[in-house]
Specification:
single chain; 444 residues; alpha+beta; Heat Shock Protein 90; 5-stranded mixed sheet; 12 strands
């Protein structure tokens, strides 16, 4: 339940973190885009103000010629009335049209004010568009009138977001030349506004890949744990089962002296109690256990006595178990789980023994705040890389090991006994010392 609860909390934290990154990125990017937009608009406005301030009054130099042409056309008696009316209308339009100089001057100032901002310059009625820039209009195969119509459609889009800038230029003989600059966002600002969404997509993808990876690793670790637990159960049951089979074969061999029978009965009872303890150990894994003040010497001595009788003695190879624990030393223990830790440490020490005369020493001392327990051997030792990984689930240096014993030992000590366990010292060819710290029992 704790693992599941932690997994749920971790998912919630990841979701909140992703949302925070998204909101913060969106806020900051929009703020930056608005600042850039304000700067671009200010550049356009400054250009328009400079144009209005520096433009000299213009006049139409052809007014007298226009008037002479009007008089000439009116005096012609041979022209049809409709043709004469057309010529006079054209002359009136020419007289009222502004000269090209102010528009050309306006184009030069405007082009310096905006190099990336989409903008269109039109008259007050938007019937005549003098020039445009950074506006995507496909003019292939289109007449000038069709291009102007498309630009007017673009003006409506631009004015829907931003108010056009008005520019007034005084022209002698014409009055005030009023022009409007219709503008929008530059491509850079548009891309910048989309950036937080792209960033959010990558962040979500990162969290999704990370979550899938963590889920896969968790399932893989759980699978290894179940396999390891099954093998550990077989290992725990194997020792007493093998002993029981040996006692049965001894009983079948024939009659035995009364002393041997009593000794055999005692050993059978020990193995039966051992099976009972194994069942209790597995039932307590993952559950809350109650720590009770226990004689540390009795607990350690019980484990070492049981293991001593079952240490394989082959040829010249002899392994000696030593215990150095004060008889009155007590510690808050869950005895069955603590014995499991000692058995794993002793079993590993036995497997690491590569000398004919080996020894394993279990010692305990009382410190100011803790009780210190050491399991020391003179086996082959470990290198630094192995020391760092020795408590990882699934890590083992044995060809047929499953790497669960020390992982369970650390969990039992840290979670169930609120203590610590680590490799205190280890040297290749000299041996290893595991150290356990347990809290002292509270004084009543």
């Amino acid at each position: 339940m704790k693992t599941y609860s932690f997994s749920v909390k971790l998912r919630a934290v990841l979701i909140v973190l992703a949302l925070f990154i998204a909101v913060a990125s969106l806020y900051y990017t929009n703020r930056l885009a608005n600042q850039l937009q304000e700067r671009e608009v200010r550049n356009l406005e400054l250009g328009a103000e400079a144009l209005a301030q520096t433009a000299q009054p213009y006049f139409n130099p052809h007014l007298e010629q226009y008037e002479a042409l009007k008089s000439y056309i009116s005096s012609r008696k041979d022209l049809p009335a409709d043709q004469k009316a057309t010529f006079e209308a054209a002359l009136e339009w020419g007289i009222t049209m502004p000269p090209g100089e102010p528009l050309a001057y306006m184009r030069r100032v405007w082009e310096q004010s905006s190099k990336t901002v989409p903008a269109i310059v039109s008259d007050e009625s938007m019937q005549y568009i003098s020039h445009y820039a950074n506006v995507e209009v496909d003019s292939t195969g289109l007449s000038e009138q069709q291009i102007q119509e498309r630009l007017r459609n673009e003006i409506q889009k631009l004015d829907g977001r931003f108010k056009p800038i008005e520019v007034n230029i005084s022209v002698v003989g014409f009055g005030t030349l009023k022009q409007f600059i219709h503008y929008g966002e530059s491509k850079v600002i548009g891309d910048l506004r989309w950036f937080p969404f792209v960033q959010l997509a990558f962040v979500m993808l990162f969290f999704l890949v990370g979550y899938i990876g963590l889920s896969y690793l968790r399932r893989s670790e759980q699978s290894k744990m179940w396999v390891g637990m099954a093998k550990e159960a077989a290992h725990q049951l194997g020792t007493p089962t093998t002993s029981l089979m040996g006692w049965v074969e001894l009983m079948r061999a024939g009659e035995m002296p009364p002393e041997t029978e009593r000794e055999l009965a005692d050993e059978l009872e020990k193995d039966i109690h051992r099976l009972e303890r194994v069942a209790n150990r597995f039932s307590k894994i993952g559950s809350t256990v109650q720590l009770i003040p226990t004689s540390l010497g009795s607990a350690i001595q019980g484990v070492t006595n049981y293991m001593q009788r079952r240490i394989p003695q082959q040829g010249k190879r002899q392994i000696r178990l030593e215990v150095a624990v004060p008889p009155d030393l007590q510690a808050p223990l869950a005895p069955e789980l603590f014995e499991w830790v000692l058995e794993n440490l002793i079993k590993n020490a036995m497997d690491a023994m590569d000398k004919d005369k080996g020894w394993i020493r279990v010692a305990a001392t009382e410190k100011e705040r803790n009780i210190e327990i050491e399991v020391q051997d003179n086996g082959k030792g470990m290198d630094r890389k192995t020391q760092r990984r020795v408590f990882e689930p699934g890590f083992s240096t044995k060809k047929r090991g499953w790497g669960l014993g020390l992982s369970l030992a650390r969990r039992i000590i840290t979670e169930n006994h609120r203590g610590k366990i680590w490799v205190h010292t280890s040297k290749l060819g000299e041996g290893t010392t595991f150290r356990i710290l347990l809290p002292k029992p509270k004084e009543r």
